[in-house]
Amino acid sequence: MMRAHAPATTPTTIAGRANRRAAMRVTTTTVTTRAVSDASSVEASGDAAPAPPALESEVGVDYAPFKALLEAGEWEKADDEHRRLMCVLAGEEAELREWVYFTEVSQMPVKDLQTIDALWRFYSKDRFGFSVQRKIWISQKKQWAKFFKKIDWTTGENGDYRKFPQEFQWRADAAPGHMPLTNALRGTQLFEALLEHPAFGPGKPERTSEGSFFEGSSSRETPVRFELPTVGGVLDVTARFGKAAVIFVQELAK
To answer: Is the whole model's pTM more than 0.85, yes or no?
Structure first.
């Protein structure tokens, strides 16, 4: 019986194996170095994915279900949950009737409205939310017809309101400001109260005995005040005007 002999190991074969092992070590080191370098670059440049907003509430409201619907892209269901949350924040009477009076908006906590708005903006990539709607509203000089057209709530030349819910655009690529929905069929007082809430802007100043109103534009928002003159002020102005009139008549007579 013949025995099989192992092939002879030559110096050339040994050198070839050594070269291949060395090449593998170099490749592995290069790949590892690149991976570490890439990770360091991402960390240094701050390109890591931003964390979702914190679910903060001043009154103990759970925003996890709302967050989950937005995260899943369930826009219509998220809008329904949003409406329920607004009633919760407005108080027990609003919860029972399932809609909000504009006079109840002022009692809604700032932190909670900001949480809701931050969730809308985060999951829509800054496309939806009250603060987004407010910017558009101001850019349209607070003219409701132009604003509703801009956020695609109306259709046609007559600006007819879309029918709820079937005609609204429950999509991530809907017009900026298209969501959340606020019922404006009976007037815009509720919507205005929300957009003027301190959670999103300076708020609407209280009307005083001296009289005041709020004027806003896309470039600035300034409380404008008109002071009513006192009785003494009126008499002083009248006396000054009368004296000036007498002097004028005397000059004409010369």
So the answer is: no
